[in-house]
Automatic annotation (TrEMBL):
UniProt cross-references to SUPFAM superfamilies, sorted A to Z: Uracil-DNA glycosylase-like
Protein name per its UniProtKB record: Uracil-DNA glycosylase
Annotated ranges, domain Uracil-DNA glycosylase-like: 35-191
One Pfam family this sequence matches: UDG
Alphabetized InterPro entries for the sequence: HI_0220.2, Uracil-DNA_glycosylase-like, Uracil-DNA_glycosylase-like_sf
Length: 201
């Protein structure tokens, strides 16, 4: 996609309301608010799951405790992370999917990736570093068939272009304790690769 059409794509996603009827039926009964954070030319793609409530309210990706943990994993400052010329954040759904009746997170609506991801991928072009975060993104970007632990544990077969990551949510604090190899082995290599890609750009 030529660069001049990318702003149109961004505006098209920002005005998307395809999921409005579904979101109205959730416990949160919220309206769609797409959080669109990419520009052609970025070098690192963070492929997350979907905005949480705080991100929905702020309109800025990973603007929460998960984001602080993710930036620490990547060894990136807030300024670097939110530099659109270097980092793109493209989740499996651009909007907060809402909560179910028990207060659990609803999954990203599949129609979002089906509707938008092909065009976004074309707009961004080949990126030197892609970080699928969480099981939905592992399946979409890597064709992963197993669970999150198995996919992340197999990171060496995807590096240095892809690094599958678990979600940095506080809910995964137990997972991080049970899998100390993640901090000891994967993160140092990931941080070095992030620095290399940022320095090259
Ligand atoms: S989640 Fe995606 S498809 Fe659904 S309203 Fe938001 S931008 Fe549109």
């Amino acid at each position: 996609m030529p660069p001049e059409t990318a702003p149109e794509l961004v505006r098209g996603i920002e005005s998307c309301r395809l999921c409005a009827p579904d979101f109205a039926r959730t416990a949160t009964a919220h309206k769609p608010r797409p959080v669109v954070w990419f520009r052609p030319g970025a070098r690192i793609l963070i492929a997350g799951q979907a905005p949480g409530l705080r991100v929905h309210e702020a309109g800025r990706p990973f603007w929460d405790a998960s984001g602080r943990r993710l930036r620490e994993w990547l060894g990136m400052s807030e300024d670097e992370f939110y530099d659109l010329t270097r980092v793109a954040v493209v989740p499996m759904a651009f909007c907060f999917p809402g909560y179910d009746a028990k207060g659990g997170d609803l999954p990203p609506p599949p129609r979002c990736a089906a509707t938008w991801h092909g065009q976004v991928t074309e707009a961004l072009g080949e990126m030197p570093l892609l970080l699928p975060v969480g099981g939905h993104a592992h399946r979409w970007h890597l064709g992963a068939k197993g669970g999150v632990t198995e996919t992340v544990a197999g990171w060496r077969s995807h590096a240095p272009r892809f690094f599958p990551l678990p979600h940095p949510s506080w809910r995964n604090t137990g997972w991080l304790k049970r899998n100390p190899w993640f901090a000891a082995e994967l993160l140092p290599v990931l941080r070095a690769r992030v620095r290399e890609v940022l320095d090259e750009g």
